[in-house]
User: Fold these one by one.
Assistant:
Number 1:
Amino acid sequence: MGFGQFLTEPEFKFIIVTHRDIFQNISQEISRFGNEYAERSSVITLDKDDMKKMGLKAGDTVVAKNTSARVVLKVESSVYEKPHPGIAFMINGPWANALVPADTGGTGVPRFKKIEVTLSRSKTEKVTPLNDLI
Amino acid sequence: MYKGPFVCTGCALLCDDIAAEIQDNRIIRVDTACRKGVSRIKGCSSPMSCMVNGKAVDIDTAIKEAAMILKSSKHPLIFGHGNCTLETQKKTIELARKIYAHIDDTSSFCQGPLIEAILNEKLPTCTLEEVRHKADVVIFWGADPSNSHPRHLSMYSYFPRGKERQRGWEEDRTAITIDIRKSDTAALCGDKFYEIPINGDSEFINALFSALSNKVPKTSFNMDPKKILELANILKKSDFGVIFAGLGMVYSLDSLEPLLRLINKLNETSKFYLIPMVGQYNMRGFDHTLFKETGYINRVYFGREKIEHGPQHSIIELINNNVVDAALIIGSDPLASLPGEIAKKLANVPLITIDPCNNLTSQRSKVTISSALSGVECAGTAIRMDGVEVTLKQIIETDRFSDEQIIKQIMGKI
């Protein structure tokens, strides 16, 4: 048990943009309750430099937080996307949706593709399970 | 024994060339379909059963309980329909009228504005067959069909050697992606990928409009004007251009005005059309059906005195404002697709789910009614993403009722 665990992890502002993924789609067709669906839907993809700045490596977990929810996600690094500092990508699903604000200003259209959050490194927490989201 | 061709209901492309190997009334192999389609046709691993308050019941008991909930509700909502046949959708609209319900579908928070503009003849559109045979310029705008509609590029938009495009993608077609991220589809487009910032679509449209008007295009995100002028040149020279509009574009535009202006400008010099990249296999069908009956594509309230429509009748605002006291969910999983806070609120309303498979919504429902998987266990019709009606065939036999039969029975008990 080290001194570091008592320090608060710094929070960084990000915008999450959601997108589709064929492999998550397949796992969704098979079962919403399967491990593969959960594993693919709970990943947040970050820019390499942002990961470096936050002291993160692939497979680490981060806490994504805003006024709507607090969700623990697994980090992956971008592969072929151009640099995207401050922007994170997630496959759309219940983990990303938990962070989408309910307020639409009366339009009835939530901001599914521009989710403002803060991200901080998580030391010990595991990815939020599906049942805790709803 | 191989049978076919069947229609895949994995997405709104409704691929109609599916072959299936059937043994003892089981589908043991699916050919031609994409990975997603194969998973849809083979069926889920957790089929839903009929339940009331978490206890297994026979279908008659579940239907009776569902009818009782709807009958005693003052403000019922009927939501979903994206994975239902046209025949079912007609019945759910009839049910909504009968019980003075609110009715809505996922187009309410996705492709609705585009479908509405097409049905009101504000946006020119074409069929996917025309794309295959004629299109020389295809633009994937805020869309990534390589992931959302895996056979889009090979069946219709890029790779086929169409009647007037015999040289296919190598020489006869130019594929362009406009997006905020280099998607798998953008990677295929090479240097014809136009990366824009979040919510930058409207500004990019204005810059492109300037370039089409022979003015120097400027953007606050410093995209090279030469690149935009080069794009304008490609579009001007096009004989048959198509914009495939995805959610990235829809969510970014506050109104369709910039898009309509761009399409009109493009049609001054060439022929340009738009097809919305609809996800669920028959979401567009619901919008067509409701439009035909009410003049609106979604967000309708069948009041006792008149039909009302507007954002206040969207599922999001109905739940936000605690209007609904019971909901029938059919062919959809809103607890998985709505914002978390709204999903939690919806989960506290008495829910009835009709679906072939267990999902997040069924797990929290008071009543679940197991139905046949359309296009596999029952036949019907549906509307493809381009507005073309397609007939779905039955592949295997089942004891389960179709959605349509279930709705009919519920209506009979109200």
Number 2:
Amino acid sequence: MATPEITQEVVRSFDLAVDTVRELNQALHSEASAGRVVVRNPGGRHAVAVGLDAPYEVEIEGHVGYYCAGMNKLATVRVRGNCGVGVAENMMSGLVVIEGSASQSAGASARGGRLVIHGDASARCGISLKGADIVVRGSIGHMGAFMGQKGCLVVCGDAGDSLGDSLYEARLYVRGSVAGLGADCIEKEMRAEHVAQVRELLAAAEIDDVDAAEFRRYGSARRLYNFHVDNLGNY
Amino acid sequence: MSAGVNGWHPGLRESATFDRNSIAEIQRAAREGIYDIRGFGAKRQVPHFDDLLFLGASVSRYPLEGYREKCATDVVIGTRYAREPVKLDIPITIAGMSFGALSGPAKEALGRGATEVGSSTTTGDGGMTPEEREHSKTLVYQLLPSRYGMNPDDLRRADAIEVVVGQGAKPGGGGMLLGHKISDRVAEMRDLPKGIDQRSACRHPDWTGPDDLEIKIEELREITDWRIPIYVKVGASRTYYDVALAVKAGADAVVLDGMQGGTAATQDVFIEHVGIPILAAIPQAVESLVELGMHREVQLIVSGGIRSGADVAKALALGADAVSIGTAALIALGDNAPEHDAAYRAIGSAAGYYDDYQAGLDPAGISTQDEELAARLDPVEGGRRLANYLRTLTLEAQTLARACGKSHLHNLEPEDLVALTIEAAAMARVPLAGTSWIPGLVAQP
């Protein structure tokens, strides 16, 4: 394992060209005190910085594979690159920032905390969302927020087909075009409280060049919440 | 025309095709315009363990003395990768059933019963409750497509993780919990509004195939520091391939659920027409494991219609390491008990027939979220009944194993079995009784 380097504060450093992901995660699960951690040469490795349970500030200098920051609690994880499938899946709290783009299922089932993607996100962004907030600076692919239950998905660009299919109570805000809405997802009125919410989420994501008033809101029509013979054509 | 003895009368002939059940279902469908949703497992007759017999010992084999000689029953699950594998005293575990589908006291009773005899229980689609963690010495935590109630704290509190791909009652289908069972607590645990019909996803949100599953399992191991075993549960369908892919993905154990396996709520057409009997699935799974050199390395846990110690012994003889019970465990707690017959009849059913687990009106207080009904089940007494039942299954399996000369249940083997029907012989891959013929494998002499 790499030797801690001393700057103004104690910063632990891992080089995944030398250290293993296992060593990194074990160290992050074992340390009594959180702090700043720098991860170099991630090389697209999977499961980097997963299961954190303390207010670490993890900076990953490059691209990561699947499930980076999976089930994150309390920690801030910043990826200076792109990430693979399922970034911040089932996140409980904390902050995950992707400076590049994200692959499929970004923020899947995330229950709390905030995921910010400065590039684009692929299909199923925010699938099964359960309370976290996701802000995407670019566009998202198809099936965004599929079966989303709680939380917000803010897309500054465009959304692909079947947005919000089988949606529950998650709120979706899209500034650009929407290729198509999924089953039981409808456009809803963008009232002042919603503009304020988008403004707040953009500010928290440190995105200051996008006007919250330009977004449109989508949510569940709640027509399919209970099985009924009259709804069969909608499934 | 009045009915004669036992309802029969000359001139009254029931159609084998349009029997009374078929006629009633057509009438119901015409009336309601939507499929029937119910609980329980497949009710149709399929080749099952009853179609197998043990040969027992005689001159060519010698038996163990029935009451005194040791016949061990322990099993260790998760020896492949986990630092802390699951060690059980008996190879009969309690299958995953959710809080939501079942009442809190019912989940507690399952934990008490399993713990008393040194076995494990399993959470379900809805997360882990503190009560079931407290009362289950060994608790398997399911990771389901819905991810209801999934959180890393419970993951770390678990003794094993079970990645649920499917279940025998509905391979390819997701869960269902109808609105009248969504109490405040259930709604909160699942992050959903109270009273809506919940449709659990049939696909996981963050992986889609065997290569992804391998990486998903790696993530779960990293989160739990490679401490606890990871099972993969599949419904019995393309079993040979599913087991091979689960092993390739890194599973410590494979849980294989046949079509007779129960459910809390699914379309009747799904329960009765999708998946294959557990009898047909076990040999496929074992073949897959043997070919990969992983039989007994990756443990095989089978379920779907296990009722007796004979079923347990036969499943193990076919190559399983352990079995899992769900429906039978609920019956042991008091489901379908005769003392509730009047209450069952009041809601259009009867003791011995009740399968409306989706309705939340269970007179036995098991498949309900109604507090008054749930209070009918005393979790201590229920746990004691379940422990009694599990002990009986174990004693029965030991009796049969000793008769076959086996000092451990795991020493039972296919060679100890014959089949009563050609179908069972072909599926279980054991000879038709009195012959050496295994259809599809060994030609008739």
Number 3:
Amino acid sequence: MNFKIDRIILIIFLGITAALAFLPNFVESEYLLRLITVVIFWIGIAGCWNMMSGYTGYIDFGPVVYFGIGSYVVAIAMTKYGIPFFPSLFISGLISGSVAFLVGIPTLRLKGAYFAIATFAFAEAMKQIALEFDRTFSVSFFQGSDGITLPISGHDNSFFFYCVLPVTFLVVLAHYYIEHSKFGYGLKAIKEAETAAEISGVNTTANKLGAYVSSAFFLGLFGAIEAYWITYITPSDVFNVQKTVQMVIMTLLGGMGTFLGPVVGATFLTLISESLGARFVEYYLIMIGGIIIVAILIMPNGIIGSLKIRKKLRFI
Amino acid sequence: MYTVFVQTIINGLLLGGVYAAYSAGFSLIFGVMGVVNLAHGELIMLGAFTSYWLFAYFNLDPYLSAPFAMILLFLFGYVVQKYIINRVIGQPHIMSYILTFGLHLMIANIAIKMWTQDFRSITTSYSGANAAIWGLNIPLARLVTFMVALLVTWVLWFFLMRTETGRAIRATAQDKEVARLMGVDIRNIYAITFGLGAAITGLSGSVMSPFVIISPEMGLEYTIIAFCVVVLGGMGYMPGALVGGLVLGVAQSLAATYLNAGVSVAITFIILFIMLVICPKGILGKGSVA
Amino acid sequence: MKFGALAAVQMVSFSLNPGEILGMIGPNGAGKTTLLNCVIGIHKPTSGKIFLNQIDITGMKPHKICRMGLAKTSQIMEPFMAMTVFENVLVGALHGGRMRMRPATEQTEKVIELVGLKQYAYKLSGSIPVPARRRLELARALASGANILLLDENMAGLNPHEIDEALEILKKIRNSGKSLIVIEHIMRVVMGISDRIIVLNYGSKIAEGFPEEVVNDETVIKAYLGGKLSSLKVA
């Protein structure tokens, strides 16, 4: 019954993506293209977080670590080993995913606040390791707080637009898959009642790990793209906890565990910060704090989540 | 060689005492309500600023202004819990994280607006004073804070164990439904608990003010350390904050002396991560895992 | 099975034959739920073995045991609140029954029909009344295609009429060739449906046999009913 609506939304989504693919041909202003790219970028990143935490209910407070790993892998692969961008990009995703696999096995056994803190601790530990590794072991690998300068790409904004768009597209498509697949039902069951899911035959460990690793894989790709875009990375930038916070807040505003949540939340917040952030820098963070508090108190399910409950829509 | 080691341990213990002093409130709030308070560092910041302004305008010694910080923060905590955080109790964990994170953003940035981002410090006659015994240096201000940590832990323990309100708090922590049936006003107990947690945190901020840098943005760093301390000691287990603080302080101090200063932060998080994975109940094994 | 120094269940051995309904009774705290939780792998027994068709399943993970054909309903109902009744049952079919989407959907429809939940199928499981939730627990277990169902007080809180309906469903399930273990406090249910009954008290088995044997067993009457035989006669 509702599957019909789902199909329609999927088709609309595919249509919008296809239309977006031609965007750089029409948009004259570099600023506008850059802004759109940033929005799409954040939709993808927030989506990565939603994929894991939104659907399983396991609150990951350290997703930025996989973003950072992606950035560092691409930087080291390109500068130290001279590997071209696209292969490096792919390696970034793979390494992020593999690290997530190894880290996920012990941490995904933890529940509630413990999982959140453990992921946070891991992210901060990685940041500190990237900062201090070279000095401690007298080598030159991560280059500590000096950071790494990547080869200048010489590409314009539309190049990065075309890098970001397909990855975000895949992330959103993954959401659609989660909503309609065995894997996704497993995740949602884990979120609602983990023991009940387990005795109903859900391999909870494998399902959680699957979500965690795929989220990390995509985050690695985004990290790599951003590193190449900005061409200069430091541990404090790429492992910045502020990024985690942003993903969480965007998803939460839009609606956790919903298909359109990250899309709405990321668009809304990026545009707000773009329009207010520039003019009212001083009040911007106070307002964000206020928006968060008000949103949690009056709309705990996010924009999409509230809509979903009110209109009794199964999917979106 | 030997002196360096002992000095390192002493530094670590004193540092740990400071950690313990400002983490006890975090543990209390988590233990009773299950709220991970991400605005914890802001409570420290407000405590430190209370002392700072009283010192700046009335030349009041920070140790004398500590009671004011306690009272102010109790009221602040009580109101925040009663009208804001109470509304997400019983909802998924994430709600309390995000809500308190929103509070963190607001408080910190309003403070920046009011007091600017400047770094401030309180210079008292004893700020840099050291007691030298057997060739070891013991900074007095830190020693006092260490004492305060012990005192706070002991008073809090006594309060929870021996007073009527303390019993109501413990009953609520164990089973809020049963406590409600026994006639405990849960919302009020929560507000008192949060007020209490805020008060001892403000107190610690106040007694730390002679030797730390005070700025509106100082909070987050303290929140993170409090996190680590409380996990090491066992979440929600009061004396755990003291043990966790001391262990972390010594570990950091050793790392700073024998590896390099930057590594000590890395060590903190590595210990935290390993601890959570291996033994989430904390060193003493008495924390709550839920 | 021990919790710390406390032995919750000890020295209990029993078996279940194909197509049989085994009733399990005993006072509160006798260890019935703990015993079944050991069987399906939620708790790891400290000693002892559990076999399913001659295969040792002791200490296996719950999802594996479920997929091998052993499913349990929970005494405290744990539906996946934010999902519809249909989706709840679907999880059992997809994961427990290891099916693909299409056959799982068909299976789910069948099971929902069988337990009579059709009117609630597209309601959120958090919003349906208790009797329906009890059936949902049953449906989720059934959907996994398990041959053995363990029902832990699946009729608690139902009125006599609802119990009759539930009994009809259980009979239908048994007739389709499945075996059941039924924990129940309502004597009418246990006596009326069980082929065999075992009685637990303080974590030990104190009696086993046909319903009429158990009713007349001295130790059972003493331990379980405090001497009052009359309440058993409802059967």
